User: Which sequence fits this backbone?
């Protein structure tokens, strides 16, 4: 999710590819929790996040609808669709990001394939949209699912923070710098979702930055509780002018189609 991800630092690409992540179908309700501008008086939304275990890779689909009410009473609707395929060997990511406005007009259209071409985690991002755009990934770059696995591994190892480079396809500017603070750890505890009740979890704060920008303010920031299987709950999404909370309202975890791992 970008709703997020991120990490590396002490973890080399591929080392964190554990067997803990599962497929999932998660639905979240978004509610406004903080406003930093006088231009916004309300906001609400919904988010769906699906992960399918393809045995050799992970397929993810994220759909978000966000309604923001202005001080003049106007409503701005944004619909975002984000789709990826990430190979489990950590070498390849295909991605599509589309964002539409009130009238259905496309505001963002990014797509392409990123490939690790060297043992140090560097590689190439070949965008099909914008057309004929190729960027380099710096050494140590992680893709989203590997990023989540690394976060969970770092939390389990007792790390307090990690600061990796991430490429997830949500920007046409290539890889991003991130800083992840691991704020706390929880053992198994009662949960309305039985699949989560037996799992440990970690509270994390993830900030995303442009690598070319020295600004200390992140472009996007999120906080969440991550369970050991990759399910996120208790999310806070900081869009800059306003902050939304995301409450997990439905969760289903299908059995793995891949047998023993």
Assistant:
């Amino acid at each position: 999710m970008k709703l997020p991800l991120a990490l590396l630092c002490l973890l080399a690409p591929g080392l964190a590819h554990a067997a803990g992540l599962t497929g999932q179908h998660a639905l979240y309700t978004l509610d406004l929790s903080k406003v930093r501008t006088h231009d916004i008086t309300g906001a609400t939304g919904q988010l769906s996040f699906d992960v399918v275990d393809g045995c050799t890779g992970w397929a993810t689909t994220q759909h978000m609808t966000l309604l923001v009410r202005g001080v003049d009473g106007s409503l701005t609707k944004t619909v975002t669709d984000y789709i990826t395929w990430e190979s489990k060997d950590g070498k390849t990511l295909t991605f599509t990001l589309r964002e539409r406005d009130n009238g259905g007009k496309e505001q963002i259209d990014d797509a392409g394939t990123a490939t690790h071409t060297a043992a140090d985690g560097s590689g190439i991002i070949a965008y099909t949209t914008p057309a004929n755009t190729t960027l380099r990934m710096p050494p140590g770059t992680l893709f989203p699912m590997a990023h989540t696995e690394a976060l969970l591994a770092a939390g389990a190892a007792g790390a307090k923070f990690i600061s990796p480079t991430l490429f997830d396809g949500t920007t046409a500017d290539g890889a991003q710098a991130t800083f992840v603070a691991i704020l706390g750890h929880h053992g198994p505890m009662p949960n309305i979702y039985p699949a989560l009740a037996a799992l440990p979890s970690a509270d994390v704060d993830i900030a995303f930055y442009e690598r070319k920008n020295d600004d200390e303010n992140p472009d996007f920031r999120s906080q969440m509780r991550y369970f050991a299987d990759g399910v996120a709950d208790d999310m806070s999404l900081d869009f800059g002018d306003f902050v939304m909370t995301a409450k997990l309202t439905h969760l289903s975890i299908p059995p793995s189609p891949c047998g023993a791992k």
Q: What stands out?
A: Residues 24-247 form one domain. Residues 1-19 have pLDDT under 50 and may be disordered.
